[in-house]
Design goal:
Elements: H1 8-11, H2 19-27, E1 38-40, H3 53-64, E2 68-70, H4 76-89, H5 94-97, E3 99-101, E4 107-109
């Protein structure tokens, strides 16, 4: 089935994934003996129409079935500066450890 005009897949070519691959990635997001809480870090500014971060934290806690800690917001500029400094130094810092490229080459921030 072809995607409709304006759909994500109409504008972005992706090879897709098997259900087994999806399930592996989904299970990686579940709480474990080591991963017992979720740290929610607001990055950048949000439009007034967006959900309040406290509401997002409550939804995330219910969805992931674990406590959510709401961290102090970060600006996009400060985050980019940290990653660029870590990348330029070539050092394996805490910041670079969590920075990865997504399937489409997009920057992603992973927390664990």
């Amino acid at each position: 089935q072809r995607p409709e005009e304006g759909d994500w897949l109409d504008e972005h070519r992706q090879s897709g994934q098997s259900f087994a691959a999806f399930a592996r990635k989904t299970n990686a997001s579940r709480p474990t003996a080591r991963r017992t809480k979720l740290l929610l870090v607001p990055v950048g500014t949000f439009p007034s129409s967006a959900l309040d971060v406290h509401t997002v934290a409550r939804i995330a806690a219910a969805f992931f079935d674990c406590p959510v800690i709401l961290a102090k917001p970060l600006s996009i500029g400060s985050l980019k500066a940290k990653f660029n400094a870590a990348k330029a130094s070539g050092a394996k810092t805490k910041a670079s450890k969590f920075h990865r490229k997504g399937d489409e080459g997009q920057d992603q921030l992973h927390a664990g």
